[in-house]
Amino acid sequence: MKIPSRVTVVEVGPRDGLQNETAGISTADKVAFVDRLSAAGCPVIEVSAFVSPKWVPQMADAADVFAGITRRPGARYTALVPNLAGLERAHAAGVAEVAIFAASSESFSKKNINQTISESLETYRAVCDRARTLDLRVRAYLSTAFGCPFEGEVEPDRVADVAEALIAMGAFEVAISDTIGIAHPGQIPQVVGAVAARVPLDRIALHFHDTRGTALSNVLAALDLGIATFDSSAGGLGGCPYASGAAGNLATEDLLYMLHGLGIATGIDLDAIIEASAALAPHVGHEPASRYFRAARASTPPAARRSSN
Ligand code: HMG
Ligand code: MG
Question: Is the CB of 101 under 6 A from ligand 1?
């Protein structure tokens, strides 16, 4: 198959990244981060999560972040919702697109949302029904699709079952997620192939964490299969509070460098993402993990960087 000429990059740093930072980022700094990502041209930004503040205190200010950001016309601003209460909070905050998040393994589902997979599908069916009446779009995540921190291997058919259920209940897209960064390119055809047998290819996104350094290779393998939507986080921020040891998401800088190098358009300015990561770094208290960020800051004159889009 010919690789896509355009890819949609879903920027999840403000949510997946900051949900796991211990530094206590202020609402104003989160707003400034999202605004910089918007200015960089990100077409989709996951801004926050309307989850229980008892479970994830880092996302307690979701409504305030949404109230503070400047929305660029044409861009999509999304948030996680785990249940109807989260959906109502998101709707009250003026959010037009939400994301539900199920798992492919029972143990992770219980640890993350305190529900079995089938209980969570009931919850999400109600969320999708209500979202339809409110005219909100629903994206879905499917965690532990390449391996579970508690159960190990996960059968691709199991992943396909849950992915199909999420699409059937009304999600417009399912992000097949490597929660703990364990996927390798050899798994991509198996897992994507199993899902694609039940879900149209253009409704499948991939969400990689980069714990073992395989995220970019996985993207390359998935491009070959025709996948054209990938999640990433500026600077490589991230992790998951309920999957200890999970490293950050694939870094947006690293992803853009590879995509632009392949001649794939994204509409995002790589230099501007670096500026967004650099401005946030003092507040999170550590240097971004992105390899491209580090190389660019260390040596490359800005004019020589690839910002093609
Ligand atoms: P629970 O304790 O089983 O449920 O939590 P509950 O209904 O008993 O609620 C507990 C308390 O939270 C109650 O308050 C509720 O009112 C409140 P209390 O009566 O004790 O004062 N509550 C809420 N408050 C605000 N917003 C809400 C909400 N819902 C309940 N929406 C629950 C169940 C699902 C709420 C909880 O487990 C939860 O919030 N989990 C979220 C965990 C999370 O955010 N994990 C990280 C995101 S997933 C991820 O990172 C993976 C992903 O990136 C893909 C990948 O990489 O795999 C997406
Ligand atoms: Mg994640």
Answer: yes
Q: What is the position in ligand 1's atom list of the atom closest to the CA of 99?
A: 58
Does residue 146 sit within a domain?
Answer: yes
- What pLDDT shows up at residue 24? 87
Query: Does some domain include residue 1?
Result: no
Q: What is the pLDDT of residue 248?
A: 92
Domain count, the chain: 1
pLDDT (tens digit per residue) in 159-178: 999 999 999 999 999 999 99
Average pLDDT of the chain to the nearest whole number: 94
Ligand 1 pocket mutation, candidates 52, 101, 119, criterion most atoms within 8 A of CB: 52
Q: Please write the tens of the pLDDT for every residue from 88-121.
A: 999 999 999 999 999 999 999 999 999 999 999 9
Q: Is 211 in the pocket of ligand 1 (CB under 6 A)?
A: no
The reply to whether ligand 1 has any atom less than 6 angstroms from the CB of 90 is: no
Write the CB contacts of 304 (distance below 8 Å, at least 6 apart in sequence): none
Over residues 139-146, mean pLDDT: 98
240 is catalytic: yes
Look at ligand 1, atom 32, and give the residue with the nearest C-alpha. 113
Considering every ligand atom, which ligand is closest to the CA of 177?
Answer: 1
Residue 307 scores a pLDDT above 70: no
Residue 14 lies in a domain: yes
**pLDDT greater than 90 at residue 299:** no
If you take atom 29 of ligand 1, which residue's CA is the nearest one?
52
Ligand 1 pocket member 85 (CB < 6 A): yes
In a domain, 238, yes or no: yes
